[in-house]
Design a protein that fits this description.
about 210 residues, alpha+beta, 2 domains, ten-stranded mixed sheet, 5 helices
């Protein structure tokens, strides 16, 4: 999918009643799941992971914050731990069309439903919502794979927790594994062509690094 933005509706029930389905026939349960999720992706705006809201009145509004801080639970600055303050929404006064799709699988009767809507705005107001694409496919294999991945993740997490409960292994992780992984990551960023080679070297030089 690549970079995208997300859109939600202030009142999802209103969104559902405005949809023009045309010749598309959609089970009521699928519509309920779409309303319940109420989060959609679009590549027709900034494509920068911004969040937008369509208000009860039909205005497209963008989410903003007055202040961004990087802190952890103890109040100390730390990279990638973002705390946002002073949320507010700005009316975009948008005129034109936006295509949106649900941001998660719509799973009904062992089928994934893929639905795309076109939102048409006129003079800043949502004028119409039309279903422009609709398809479904069997998802039994996808769900089985997802279950397998989840189980593998649980086993890996349990093993990792067991390893880190060992004091010697914690020292090994803190003083050797993490520094080496950091060096390897920087080298991969600098020399992406040698990514595979760097990973092979990391496997040899740092046994079982993937458990940390």
């Amino acid at each position: 999918m690549g970079m995208f933005d997300t859109i939600s509706f202030e009142y999802s029930e209103q969104f559902a009643t405005k949809i023009k389905w045309g010749k598309h026939k959609v089970p009521a349960e699928v519509v309920r799941l779409i309303k319940e999720n109420n989060t959609f992706q679009t590549k027709d705006l900034d494509k920068a992971l911004f969040h937008y809201l369509i208000s009860f009145e039909g205005h497209l509004k963008s989410q903003h914050f007055e202040e961004y801080q990087y802190i952890n639970d103890s109040g100390l600055p730390v990279k990638l731990a973002i705390q946002k303050k002073g949320e507010y929404w700005m009316d975009e006064d948008f005129h034109g069309s936006i295509n949106i799709i649900p941001d998660t699988f719509i799973d009904f009767l062992d089928e994934d439903w893929f639905i795309e809507f076109n939102l048409k705005f006129t003079d800043g107001i949502l004028e119409s919502i039309e279903c422009i694409k609709l398809s479904s496919q069997c998802n039994i294999e996808r769900k089985a794979l997802a279950k397998q991945i989840t189980e593998e993740y649980k086993k890996r997490y349990a093993l990792r927790k067991g390893i880190l409960d060992n004091k010697l292994l914690r020292l090994y992780a803190g003083f050797y594994v993490y520094p080496m992984m950091k060096v390897a990551f920087k080298k991969i960023q600098k020399y992406p062509k040698f990514k595979k080679l760097i990973k092979i070297l990391l496997t040899i030089l740092v046994p079982f690094y993937w458990y940390f």
